[in-house]
Amino acid sequence: MQVSETRKYGILKLQKNPKKVMILKKNFVFIISFILLYTVFQILSGVILTAFYTPDLSAIETTISQEVAFGKASSMPLIVTMLIATYAYFLSQKYLKLEKVKLLEE
Questions:
Q1: Are 88 and 33 in contact (CB under 8 A)?
Q2: How many Cβ atoms are within 10 Å of 40's Cβ, its own excluded?
Q3: Burial class (CB in 10 A: 0-12, 13-18, 19+), 59
Q4: What is the pTM assigned to this prediction?
Q5: 3-class SS at 1?
Q6: Phi, psi of 67 (to 5 degrees)
Q7: Are 37 and 88 in contact (CB under 8 A)?
Q8: CA 20 to 30 Å from 58, out of 23, 74, 94, 106?
Q9: How far apart are CA 32 and CA 27, in angstroms?
C-alpha cells in the first residue's frame, strides 16, 4: 500500500477492502439515524395528540355500541416515513463527509 493510499483511507488502512467497510459504515449510520429520527417523531406526535385530545362526553349518556368503527386508511404514515428516511440519508452523508474531512486533516 502506498503512502497516499494510507492517508486517503485513514483508520481503514489496515482493512483488506476499505470500500466494503465504508459501505457498511454508511448503512450503519443511516439505520441508526433513521431509528432515532423515527422514534423522536413517534414520541412527539404522541405528545401532541395527547395534548389536543378532547373526550366525547355524549357517549356516556347513551348505551355503548358493540360495533367497532375503524375509519379510513391514510397514506400519511408512509409519506412521513419516507421523509424521515430521506432526512436520515442526508444526515448520514453529511456525517460521513465531515468524518472524511477530519481524517484528511490529520
A1: yes
A2: 11
A3: exposed
A4: 0.56
A5: coil
A6: -90, 140
A7: yes
A8: 74
A9: 9
